[in-house]
Amino acid sequence: MFCFQCEQTAGCNGCTGKRGVCGKTADVAKAQDELTGALIGLAKTCGNNPKTADTDRVIIEGLFTTLTNVSFNEETVRVMIERVEEEKSRIAPGCGTCVAKCGNTDNYDMEQIWNADEDIRSLKSLLLFGIRGVAAYAYHAMVLGYQSEEVNFFLYKALATLSMDLGMEELLPVVLETGKVNLTCMELLDRANTETYGIPKPTEVSLKVEKGPFIVVTGHDLRDLKLLLEQTEGKGINIYTHGEMLPAHAYPELKKYGHLKGNFGTAWQNQQKEFADLPGAILFTTNCLMPPKESYADRVFSTEVVSYPGVVHVDDGKDFTPVIEKALELGGFEEDRQYKGINGGEKLTTGFGHGTILQAADQIVDAVKAGAIRHFFLVGGCDGARKGRNYYTEFVKQTPADTIILTLACGKYRFNDLDLGSIGGFPRIMDMGQCNDAYGAIKVAVALAEAFDCGVNELPLSMVLSWYEQKAVCILLTLLHLGIKNIYLGPSLPAFLSPNVLQYLVENYQISPIGDPKEDLEKMLG
User: Fold this and answer.
1) Mind telling me which Gene3D superfamilies this protein's record contains (predicted)?
2) Cα-atom radius of gyration of the chain, to the nearest Å?
3) Burial (0-12, 13-18, 19+ Cβ within 10 Å), 164
4) Hey, how many other C-beta atoms are within 10 angstroms of the C-beta on 65?
């Protein structure tokens, strides 16, 4: 196998051999490459043949299936390949029997990318990993009934581009276009979530697990959580969020359920420790799955495109009866248990989306002009297991008392239980939501720039980002599309960035690797 799409890739170079650091086997990695090649073939087929809504769904689901920590199951990946092949045959039924093959609909051999010139490999990897992230966001919007033809069209274009013999000058514009399209996709998802579940409101979330049966829901999918809440209502089962599901507590249409009690645990990489011997059922709705340990494997369930061998899967019918029955069988804790965050806090606060912050825009602007707020820091992104991520905890702890920390995604668990006080009625740490909610942070930055009649790069705002997987890649490309500079990125730079591509990003956008928290902070406040 060869895979270097996530931050934890072996030796900061690439996972090879029989198994990747994430836990997927070489056979699964090979199948995912075959799936990607088949998706490229389907995209090329649609160049001369009309696609349908079903084709769009196959493209989006197929790309999402190849995201890190989604599927560890070769069987389900190959079922997805079959769906792609069936769709291709339906779109162009004559190609399978054609005696004069043109090659336009052939599947693509991904080895051509992995063995290409390092700069071409780098740019094509940026493009591929970027659209995998876009597809994840498109998927969440799609299941709520929201789609964008602009986003869908670009996924076909990008896939077809991967098969072309192009130079750096031709590839770079398509890579940067990924960021533009992802902005459209994140706006679509934001609208889908808020129109379906209401505008998030600041909400305090308990870290206590009450006695009795319970289910822990992890991943990102709000629709799955809503369906589970409906099916468990009145059954004496409490529901707890985990990881990226924490912001669900802020949505009016979800928080109205009294048995949505609180949050359990921290970020995804701690699940094998936190779930050990847990007397409750665990539902994985999207990416963030780690190979389950034997001590809790019998109580893990998956849905959507998540798949792991031996784990019970809830199909599109969304009958969560097996999950409910397991929770009742396990019975939960006999007494309430108070858990704590990484820094010892017993509660978290979420719900500071752009709707809430922009309502107080005048108050914030006045506080900046009066000198009460000196600087804003966006400290967010993916968490992970690699050493060096304590940087984000130390950085936030050292921020001056007259600064605000905006945060989102699961990287916030490094510091979101800290009590840093408030400024003028605003808590110094404001959780804006999931990685899916990065659009909100961009919207706030743009609004502040308009209020101060300046560019985003002229604001008293610094971005300190952590990355792990492909959604972080497409968000970074969106920031570059917007011309945002001086981003600090860590804990390590992506292995798929060649020296020349990295130099381009440094020269044009002044991207910097994180270093010492104190020294970086001094530079940002300089």
Assistant:
1) 1.20.1270.20, 3.40.50.2030
2) 23
3) exposed
4) 28
Task: Report which of 328, 327, 324, 333 is spatially closest to residue 210, judged by C-alpha positions.
Answer: 333
Q: What is the residue range of 129's domain?
A: 10-196
> Mean pLDDT across the stretch 464-483?
96
Query: Do the domain assignments include residue 468?
Result: yes
Does 15 belong to an annotated binding site? yes
Residue 95 labeled ligand binder: no
Structure-block tokens of residue 109: 């051999």
- The reply, when asked if residue 220 is annotated as ligand binding, is yes
pLDDT digits (tens, 9 = 90+) for 93-121: 876 656 566 677 899 999 999 999 999 99
- Same structural domain for residues 440 and 457? yes
Contact between 495 and 467 (Cβ < 8 Å) = no
Tens digit of pLDDT for each residue in 329-358?
Answer: 999 999 999 999 999 999 999 999 999 999
**Is residue 146's pLDDT more than 70?**
yes
The verdict on whether residue 87 carries a ligand-binding annotation is no
- If one counts the domains in the chain, the total is 3
Coil, strand, or helix at residue 337? strand
Rounded to the nearest 10 degrees, what angle do helices 149-162 and 53-65 cross at? 60
What's the rounded Cα separation, in Å, for the pair 158 and 145? 23
* Spatial distance between the Cα atoms of 288 and 470, rounded to a whole number of angstroms: 12
The pLDDT value given to residue 14: 95
343 in a structural domain: no
CB atoms within 10 A of CB 182: 29
The reply, when asked if residue 102 is annotated as ligand binding, is no
Q: Where are the alpha helices (DSSP H) in 295-376?
A: 321-330, 354-359, 361-369
Q: What is the CATH number of the domain that holds 46?
A: 1.20.1270.20
Residue 98 assigned to a binding site: no
Query: Which of 520, 483, 521, 472 minimizes the C-alpha distance to 505?
Result: 483
Please tell me the distance from the alpha carbon of residue 23 to that of residue 14, in angstroms, as a whole number. Answer: 14
Q: 454 a known binding residue?
A: no
Q: How far is CA 512 from the centre of its chain?
A: 22
The DSSP code sequence of 140-159 is: HHHTTT---HHHHHHHHHHH
Helix (H, G, I), strand (E, B) or coil at 248: helix
Is 185 annotated in some ligand binding site?
no
Look at residue 388 in the predicted model and tell me its pLDDT. Answer: 87
SS3 content of the chain, % helix, strand, coil (to 5): 50, 15, 35
Q: In DSSP terms, which residues pair with 3 in a beta bridge? A: 15
What CATH code is carried by the domain that includes residue 313? 3.40.50.2030
Judged against a pLDDT cut of 90, whether residue 82 lies above it is answered with yes
Query: Does residue 181 sit in helix, strand or coil?
Result: helix
User: Taking the model in full, what pTM does it have?
Assistant: 0.96
Residues 207 and 173 in one domain: no
- Find out whether 474 is annotated in a ligand binding site: no
What distance in Å separates the CA atoms of residue 282 and residue 327, rounded to the nearest whole number? Answer: 9
